[in-house]
Design a protein that fits this description.
about 0% strand, mainly alpha, 9 helices, single chain
Length: about 200
């Protein structure tokens, strides 16, 4: 997507008075554009790393070329990547907290329509009571529910990836001791005396 298209989408989203439906559609399109950009940069980096891997067959003569390629891959389009990540984190925070009340204003049915939630999945989630954007998009991963995004950690729909980026950023920046222990308290080992 061209920068002019993103600028146009942002101007639509920031105009006073657009409907909640329009705001969610624009947010989804912007997040999709940034996730595609991130995926493109990472694919280029992987290609450079593969080239460096091919040179390993000719070691020790190619040692410097391998190091140069790895360094080049590590810094390839770093500014664009970090900028896109920050944008996704910002959109993720707005989806998690939903300060604009998009889910409340839309209702469950229209929200699921915009998010392309399969009717079968809607019925399952109505029994679970998930009615927030965060619940539908991140916890249940129902956006574009008929699309298979992969099983790797962090893979998912554009809005899921935005929420994921926000959660990861929160975990990174949370002061030590403030983050709850997700795995429970560490218990002492159960020691027993075994007699033969």
């Amino acid at each position: 997507m061209k920068p002019s298209h993103l600028t146009r989408l942002c101007s639509i989203a920031t105009k006073p008075g657009p409907s909640s439906n329009m705001r969610l559609i624009v947010t989804k399109r912007i997040c999709r554009a940034f996730t595609l950009q991130i995926d493109s940069i990472r694919a280029e980096r992987r290609a450079m790393n593969r080239e460096a891997g091919k040179l390993k067959a000719f070691l020790p003569f190619t040692r410097q070329a391998i190091f140069d390629l790895y360094d080049q891959a590590q810094g390839h389009r770093e500014d664009e990547l970090s900028g896109a990540q920050r944008v996704l984190e910002g959109f993720g925070q707005s989806l998690i907290f939903d300060r604009e009340g998009l889910a409340k204003n839309l209702g469950v049915g229209p929200m699921c329509d915009v998010l392309s939630v399969n009717p079968v999945h809607r019925q399952q989630e109505n029994t679970g009571g998930l009615t927030s954007l965060y619940g539908v998009v991140y916890l249940s991963q129902l956006e574009d529910s008929t699309t298979r995004y992969g099983d790797k950690w962090g893979d998912g729909s554009p809005l899921y990836r935005a929420c994921h980026a926000a959660v990861i950023q929160f975990i990174r920046t949370c002061p030590e001791g403030e983050l709850p222990n997700l795995f429970g308290p560490k218990l002492p080992p159960d020691l027993r005396i075994v007699r033969e």
